Amino acid sequence: MDLETLRTQCLSCTRCPLHTTRTNVVFGQGVPTAEVLFVGEGPGQSEDEQGLPFVGRSGQLLDKYLFAIDLDRNQNCYIANIVKCRPPQNRDPLPAESEACMPWLREQFRILQPKIVVCLGRIAAQRMIRADFSVTKEHGTFIEKGGIWFMGTFHPAALLRQKQNKPDAFADFLALREKIGQVCEHTY
Q1: Distance separating alpha carbons of residues 4 and 9, to the nearest angstrom
Q2: CB neighbours (10 Å) of residue 4?
Q3: pTM of the predicted structure, to 2 decimals
Q4: Top CATH class, 3-182
Q5: What is the pLDDT of residues 106-138, one digit of tens each?
Q6: Where does the Uracil-DNA glycosylase-like domain lie (predicted)?
Q7: Closest among 168, 167, 135, 176 to 152, alpha carbons compared
Q8: Pair 79, 31: CB distance under 8 Å
């Protein structure tokens, strides 16, 4: 199966109640050969309206960070979320919603076979790295699991609210660039 076939299947998903309030499924965006996968928790209002991940104000900030380290969602990375439908009022996804949606992300993961996964925010990091992962204490640290490097960093939306964390987040992206140079074959 390829990403487009999986996306087509995902667009009609009714596995959890979030499908009843969505405008669009936010499957993911990027290149199918991406060695670097970014994972957030779930779409917000702008993402739900456009059907694309990280397109609102936080997405604009993410794109600036990506640009600074020579990444581009249309050229050499992939962006997805734990849940593919917007939780009402942008609340955290409920455990049952995350669980219902994880097969989609697992299949994206299987198709992409990333070498590096960057978890954007606490929810994604705790789901993909470790249940007690602390972004404020462990951001920018690479953890190897099954031959894949995982790193948690601040969610761009959190950086818009807590600007004092922007230098630390930028340092995480600089560390990411270095790790890409070490383990990726064709990202740069």
Answers
A1: 9
A2: 11
A3: 0.97
A4: alpha beta
A5: 999 999 999 999 999 999 999 999 999 999 999
A6: 27-174
A7: 135
A8: no
